[in-house]
Design brief:
This protein is of the alpha/beta class. It contains nine helices and 16 strands. α3 crosses α4, α6 packs parallel to α8 and α7 packs antiparallel against α8. The longest helix is centred in the N-terminal third of the chain and has 25 residues.
Length: 303
């Protein structure tokens, strides 16, 4: 009886989101263990079978860290963003477009899906320019000059290839690599790729699956989870250095998506079994929902 009631509770959401497009970004830490990868693949397949067009963007920070360690290359980050030397870029190509993409595509195929591995380079999907040296506020509040190396800032997104894959019933899986007009390849932050792709395809949702329960007021206290917020409070969390490290690029990606017209952004603990479906198909959710302004709080169904 409880399962029947849960299904009935989900009906408004099923109606609201049928035929819509979602972008789901998977943190690399969720793809390290086969158990987590298979569970997420299962939930993504459920969304797709409910007539939701799903575009997947994956990260791969831990895997790239492990590869660079094996190669004897240093791991450098400032304000949560990786500094990418030419040698690290070569490692990123192998890890992102090779190991991680193949493993995730195969997990989706095991769920009966027609998954297609892509990168931002394929079909001119994501065009980027090399990031210039800039003054950056570090997590300790100091201002430092940073040359990020072979890192790209997105110039444009052409969703033609993505839309063709979706129209054919496929699940695109995007690795966070992009190229400039001359074909020079860059490492691009996966959260940023996901946000810009969500804007480009008119997604109803951007969902960031991570290893945290959501946005926290105290990074050491899971009970401090923020269930709902808007961009004004998000800015305050960044200014007060509540959000640090890898959460800072996520905060920037959330702003990009919302200001680009994506109505809702969710930050969810992807390690928790079934969390993706719980966040989308229940009013309470289980992570953090972010909207543009308090005045535009979405009407029910909230998630």
């Amino acid at each position: 009886m409880e399962r029947t009631l849960s299904l009935l509770d989900a009906v408004p959401y099923l109606r609201a989101y049928a035929g819509q497009r979602f972008v789901v970004k998977l943190g690399g830490e969720l793809l390290q263990e086969r158990t987590h990868r298979d569970r997420v693949a299962r939930d993504l397949a459920v969304l797709h079978r409910l007539n939701i067009g799903v575009v997947i963007v994956h990260g791969g920070g831990p895997q790239l860290d492990a590869m660079t360690a094996r190669l004897g290359l240093p791991v450098e980050r400032v304000a949560g963003r990786r500094i990418t030397s030419e040698e690290v870029l070569e490692a990123a190509k192998m890890v992102f477009r090779g190991q991680i993409s193949l493993d995730l595509v195969s997990a989706l195929i095991a769920q009966g899906e027609r998954a297609v591995g892509l990168s931002g380079v394929d079909g001119g999907l994501v065009t980027a320019d090399r990031r210039p040296e800039a003054l950056v506020t570090a997590d300790d509040g100091s201002r430092v000059a940073v040359d990020y190396g072979e890192v790209g800032d997105i110039a444009s997104v052409d969703p033609t290839l993505l839309l063709a894959v979706l129209a054919a019933g496929g699940l695109p899986v995007i690795s966070p690599l992009a190229a400039d007009a001359a074909g020079r390849i860059f490492n691009v932050n996966a959260d940023t790729v996901a946000a810009r792709v969500a804007v480009a395809i008119g997604a109803a949702k951007l969902i960031l699956l991570t290893r945290a329960p959501g946005l926290l007021r105290d990074v050491n206290d899971p009970a401090s989870l923020i269930h709902w917020t808007d961009l004004e409070e998000l800015d305050t969390l960044v200014k007060d250095r509540v959000l640090q490290g890898g959460m800072r690029p996520k905060a920037a990606a959330i702003r990009t998506a919302l200001e680009g017209g994506v109505p809702r952004v969710h930050v969810v603990d992807g390690r928790r079994d079934g969390a993706l479906l719980e966040e989308i198909f229940t009013t309470e959710g289980c992570g953090t929902l972010v909207v543009a302004t308090a005045e535009t709080t979405p009407a029910e169904p909230l998630h």
